[in-house]
Design goal:
about 230 residues, alpha+beta, Alpha-Beta Plaits, 5 strands, RRM_dom
Length: about 230
């Protein structure tokens, strides 16, 4: 009797559009699924194979005995993993994936073993080629993203420096303008004060001139009176 730790199925040639939920729903038609581990590359893309753990031996036996299987028009390779599942990316699964690479499907009136093996081999070659192209494109995209981020960082730093220089220049201009306004106001006050002083000096001189004129007139009158007195005395 199969042990519960061996109720794990290896499925290959899975369409790349299928995710864990879709694969789990497909497997649930054979029995309750305990866990579905769809393998992905470092960019998060499906690698086209998975390990599915059934909750009981019935689902495990049903999926193995009811082949061949297909999904979205693609034939699936379904067989027992024969190893206990410990983690999504454990070395045992990687080695199992390499050792299980040989095409496998039960024969019936719709599929012949030769046709399936040739189709799977051709599909594996295309998958590897597409995977390599995708990895290269993803690497180039990552490099472009890094270069873009670097350029954005440099431009951002340059813009920040220019903004700071502009702000400093604006502050300096404001300080100069304020100082110039203050100097102008001081000059106006000084000029106003000087004009007042000049006017006061002019008024003082005018008053002095009037007083001197009056004194001269008084002196003339006194001198006339003196002459009159001399004449009367004579």
């Amino acid at each position: 009797m199969t042990d519960k730790n061996e109720w794990v199925i290896f499925i290959k040639n899975i369409p790349y559009d299928i995710n864990e939920n879709g694969l789990s729903e497909w497997c649930m038609s054979f029995g309750p699924v305990k866990e579905c581990s769809l393998k992905r590359d470092r960019f998060g893309h499906s690698r086209g194979f998975a390990f599915v753990s059934f909750a009981n031996i019935d689902g495990y036996s049903n999926i193995l005995s009811s082949g061949p299987h297909s999904c979205l028009g693609r034939p699936l390779i379904v067989k027992s993993a024969n190893e206990q599942k410990s983690s999504n990316d454990s070395p045992s699964y990687a080695s199992d994936q390499q050792s299980q690479a040989t095409s496998f499907l039960s024969t019936n009136d719709n599929f012949s073993s030769t046709t399936v093996d040739n189709g799977v081999a051709f599909d594996d070659e295309n998958q590897n080629h597409l995977a390599n192209l995708r990895d290269e494109l993803e690497a180039n995209l990552e490099c472009l993203q890094i270069a873009h981020d670097h350029e954005v960082k440099i431009l951002s730093e340059k813009l920040a420096k220019e903004k700071k220089l502009y702000q400093d220049a604006l502050e300096s201009y404001k300080d100069v303008e304020e100082n110039l306004t203050k100097v102008r106001e001081d000059n106006i006050r000084i000029r106003t004060s000087l004009i007042k002083n000049v006017m006061q000096t002019f008024n003082i001189r005018r008053n002095l001139a009037r007083q001197i004129k009056e004194q001269i007139n008084n002196c003339s009158q006194i001198e006339g009176q003196c002459d009159t007195l001399r004449q009367q005395t004579t």
